[in-house]
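Take one protein record:
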Amino acid sequence: MKYRRRLYWFVAVIYAALWCTHSSLAQKNVSQAALTFDEIDPIAIAVLNQAQQLSFKNGVEYCGFIALDTMGALRATAPARGLIDQCSPDAPDDWTLIASYHTHGSVDLTDLESSFELPSSDDIESDHLDEVDGYIATPGGRLWFVDGHQQIAYLIQPAGFMMTDPNYQSDDCTLHQSYTINELRYLETDGFIECDDDHSTKSLD
């Protein structure tokens, strides 16, 4: 697990600057120690786009795990339905968990001032406690990667990359490429406005 997380962290930094062309979405039999984003990312993107459709239809989060099954196949669990702002994924006990995935629900037409385009500190903490990494898709189509070991979230794709909520109104927010869990905690307690120019520079680190 430690080797894999270090590998993820290294590649996530590169992916923040350059997105590589991915391979087929087919399940692959792979060695746990040899896992790279070439195997994991396509599965995460495919299952999250399925989950996005469900989120936009039902107005709640959907989540699951990417894992190695008992035959060594890398696969994703079916999206599990959560609540408006939380979701608890599950997987067979005999699977080896690699990463979590979840959506951030849908645009709330009764509260257009609220936004779910950033990961939360709880998102990072959950992955850290489960000893996995994570993927998050937002209503605006952004894709985040969570390094559960380092407790850092990386923006690896901008708005519109993932399936996007039809009610999402494009914003002019310039989000930072990464946030530590302490930065997100500060922003959450500070009552930040996502489009403030300096909101992501404040940190407790």
Summary: Residues 1-28, 196-205 have pLDDT under 50 and may be disordered. Residues 37-58 form the longest helix (22 residues). The first strand starts at residue 28 and ends at 29.
